[in-house]
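Interim report, section 4.2 (structural modelling).
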Amino acid sequence: MDKEYVGFAALPSQLHRKSVKKGFDFTLMVAGESGLGKSTLINSLFLTDLYKDRLIPDASARLSQTLTIERRGVEIEEEGIKVKLTLVDTPGFGDAVDNGDCWMPVVRFIEEQFEQYLRDESGLNRKNIQDSRVHCCLYFISPFGRGLRPLDVAFLRAVHEKVNIVPVIGKADALTPKETQILKQKIREQLEEQEINIYQFPDCDSDEDEDFKKQDAEMKESIPFAVIGSSTVVRDGATRPVRGRLYPWGAAEVENPYHCDFLNLRRMLVQTHLQDLKEVTHDLLYEGYRARCLQSLARPGARERASRSKLSRQSATEIPLPMLPLADTEKLIREKDEELRRMQEMLEKMQAQMQQSQGEQSDVL
Amino acid sequence: MSKGFAENRTDVTMSELVAEPRPKPAVPMKPLGISSNLLGYIGIDTIIEQMRKKTMKTGFDFNIMVVGQSGLGKSTLINTLFKSQVSRKSASWNREEKIPKTVEIKAIGHVIEEGGVKMKLTVIDTPGFGDQINNENCWEPIEKYINEQYEKFLKEEVNIARKKRIPDTRVHCCLYFISPTGHSLRPLDLEFMKHLSKVVNIVPIIAKADTMTLEEKMEFKQRVRKELEVNGIEFYPQKEFDEDLEDKTENDKIRQESMPFAVVGSDKEYQVNGKRVLGRKTPWGIIEVENLTHCEFALLRDFVIRTHLQDLKEVTHNIHYETYRARRLNDNGGLPRHLLHQISPPSRAWKNKARRR
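Predicted structure of the assembly:
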């Protein structure tokens, strides 16, 4: 009777294989005042040293600095799965004496990525759409304050409908466990009071096992995550190197769940919710942006309907979308680069295969 | 007997009105120099004991201001420094801690006593400093307050019928709390200290220093010192006011090695090695506030209270107050004849000059 087996249960593993081949794109933004341990945490999360050549400007240089957006890319591979991670950093945020509107460049950047995607999606050649949308924003809150500062609130309100926000308390080794609890409670209250929508972890399915459910509940309880970052090893004797910060009174360990929530953050960000973050970005945030954008252009509603019907005949540039500062040629170059890379990979694989088969042939002969 | 008093300078204080140079630290047992032919013991050195008795009766004033972003542990540190609940937080019933929209100045006075000596301590807190999105000129209310105290004192001094002991509300010491980012000073820190180091004694300290490892602390301190130097900011003890070689060497060591003090404050006690100590308990260890290998709180306390308390008051009176007084009187065209015993308020031109400094 088990001969009546159609076989579409193999679909998930087909999808898996396809996505493994394609690789994952993930764009992570880190924001917050300088000196909260952002760079150290990123290095700890992804076990890389993305900030090796960074120069930290001193105060007088920062007096006249405005906020800049920096992008860093790194390819991480683990067990055959490739992740192309793009890190977006916001140096200069909150540094000045007058920080009014210092979040505007960030908001504009996020919207530009949406704009770019919208144009790509509405374009003719949709094969190689680069997804540069920001999938997640780790917002660092100072452990020294009494909760969210006015600047934190202003920033979060400006971006909460545009990006998944995961609030994080940086340098959590400044706090005793009790202080951490109080601070988290205060932040949660403030977020609710100010009606800021942070990224909501989806409830787990009822058929997950108890352990997973418990883990999930624990993780939700510990938001905002209180983290410590470090790239130095404190205890060499253990089987695996233990990263942490060594003080005269003891060593705070990064991966110790009693010391901080680093493990929870890493599990959430990388192990369990990476895909969900991308989906929410696409299905909720991007769609919201797209709807708002098209609606605002569709004031004479007929124009929008008319232009949509002409899609197949006209080129991409004639669609009534807001003009991007990004030149078309740059975009084309990026697409071509992507195609080139894929073709090179295919070529390498084919060469390897040919060599293998030649070897076999010579054996036979 | 007198030698013992001389070493412990906090007992040796002078009355408020006398603008005399600081007493030399060591009172020689044998008369030195020119007047070396005293035939027997006169008893001049008992003046110190007499001064001490007087001070014990009258007590003395000390006004300390704390400035820094909210959450840097200002109130806790003050409580730890004076080993009593003297901060604004302890005084108010409402512990809700809302960030005020503008910088407020809150002064709380207490009388604390030790060894028969009474000190009227006033802690001036500045909630709201550096907490807004736009912090332009948030130091102005503070500068204004400090100048107002000088003005008050000046008015009393210029009176024909002066009080025997003018109440001294001038700010003797301003503790500036630097956030332990580990990177460098923030632009706001620079701006504040630039504007106020010429008006009041600023003692910069690194708050919540338990977030930095030893190396990070050393690097950060060096960076901060360098930045202050590059920007021409003279914090207390100022180089130009060192009176003699002994002061200079002592202060040089403090200026170039210890300051800014990296402190940790706490009002909770824990049991460590059988002793009860003030500290902070974390899952990875207990940070002892008075342990010099953990933080420099003890150095700060000794500096502000045990060795330089009187000097802080003197520099405030002899230097900062005199500067203010000279400017004010210049502004009024010379010393006002005692006919006008009501000084006119500071003119706008002088205020602008002061601000542009």
